[in-house]
Amino acid sequence: MKKIFLFALPFCLALVVINGCKEYKKIEMAQTHQFEDNIVKIVPGVRSIQTFQDDDYTKVKIILDCPGFYGASDAEKSVAAVKVGQMVLQVLGTDNNLSNGTLVLTKDNSQRTPTPADAINVDMKLDSLKKVGGK
What we know:
The structure is a single chain. It is built from 5 helices and 4 strands; from the N terminus they run ααββααββα. The chain has helices spanning 2-20, 29-42, 67-70, 74-92, 126-131; strands spanning 48-52, 59-65, 100-106, 120-123. The protein has a 4-stranded mixed sheet with strand order 1-2-3-4. The longest helix is centred in the first third of the chain and has 19 residues, at 2-20. The chain is elongated, with a radius of gyration of 19 Å.
């Protein structure tokens, strides 16, 4: 039994090391443009769209300057956030590393900051969407 364990231990350690070396990909400009093209079809009255991804490539924040949709019901905002999440996963494909996405709604983000003063943050449910295949 000890011989099997001693043989299996290096193999298991090698698998852990290889899995830990996964290269995370940053969202590219072409993908950001696709987000912008599709978001205007999902959320009405969008004036500007910004995509933020800092050094943690598992997270994305999409900020929408949309005064008309800002006052929508929480249910409408949640539905829109999930639809944006589906679109993000579709654009990035199955080999993406995102697990956390936030749709940020604001009335005026003329300063183009990653945290607007009047921000309403809505979870895109990316982790759940990935489990069901992004559909």
